[in-house]
Design a protein that fits this description.
single chain, two-stranded parallel sheet, 7 helices
Length: about 240
């Protein structure tokens, strides 16, 4: 990206598409320098490369890959101020039907993968002068029952424990740790659902609509950049789904 800029330096995992891409755009619009990670170097959607955004590959759940992503961001920006742990995987199915290997993969990549990225970033965040933060993108299924989401819900619930405990550990270092819990968001995944299935899900929501990815991104931007006295917070953005 050339010479180091003056805005806060942010690493966003899974930042090439969907909610992650919206988070990147929100942070750049607010003056941040952003390193977006994806499974491949190329942007995975059809959009043009975004101004103010660098990109690196990242294998979720790989300790060495997490460390490399952090160091690539530091090399690019000269510092690291915020991390948004957005990358995750979903594999659905009722408990009796999900292969135990899929269960293990969901837990490993969502929980251990997030922990690895946080652990790699912490030493770099300690030197930040921008009220450094770790922001975890979780899901409201961590709090509600969702048939066919047993593995995913268990993994996201574990992220709640990680967020709260890490917030206690890192407060002495001035590092804030928070989570955003999206509900039903309009993405490629929801667009691919049969119309009847999506309509039934939307009918359960008090607001009677899905969220746009940009609405989740604004919540992430608030916790990462603005909420300087929030730590251990789980911000639910679900249109009232859990009510």
């Amino acid at each position: 990206m050339g010479e180091h800029g003056t805005g806060p330096a942010v690493l966003v995992s899974g930042g090439s598409r969907g909610i992650g891409a919206a988070i990147v755009d929100e942070l750049v619009a607010r003056g941040a320098q952003v390193m977006a990670t994806s499974r491949r170097m190329a942007v995975e959607d059809d959009r043009e490369p975004r101004a103010g955004v660098a990109q690196t590959s990242y294998a979720l759940g790989d300790d060495a890959s997490a460390a490399r992503a952090v160091e690539v961001a530091v090399d690019a920006f000269g510092a690291l101020d915020h991390v948004v742990a957005n990358a995750g995987v979903w594999r659905g199915g009722r408990l009796a039907d999900v292969d135990l290997r899929d269960w293990a993969a969901v837990l490993e990549q969502n929980v251990l993968g997030t922990a690895q990225l946080c652990r790699a970033a912490i030493p770099r965040l300690r030197g930040s002068r921008h009220s450094p933060s770790l922001t975890v993108v979780s899901s409201v299924v961590a709090r509600i029952g969702s048939p066919g989401d047993t593995a995913y819900a268990a993994a996201k619930a574990a992220l709640g424990g990680l967020t709260r405990s890490l917030a206690c550990e890192l407060a002495v270092d001035g590092i804030r740790v928070n989570a955003v819990l999206p509900g039903l968001v309009r993405t490629d995944m929801t667009d691919a659902l049969p119309a009847g299935t999506l309509d039934k899900l939307v009918a359960r929501l008090p607001m009677r609509r899905t969220a746009e990815a940009e609405e989740i991104a604004r919540a992430v931007g608030f916790l990462a950049l603005d909420a300087t006295y929030c730590t251990g917070t789980e911000l639910v953005v679900d249109g009232g789904w859990q009510l």
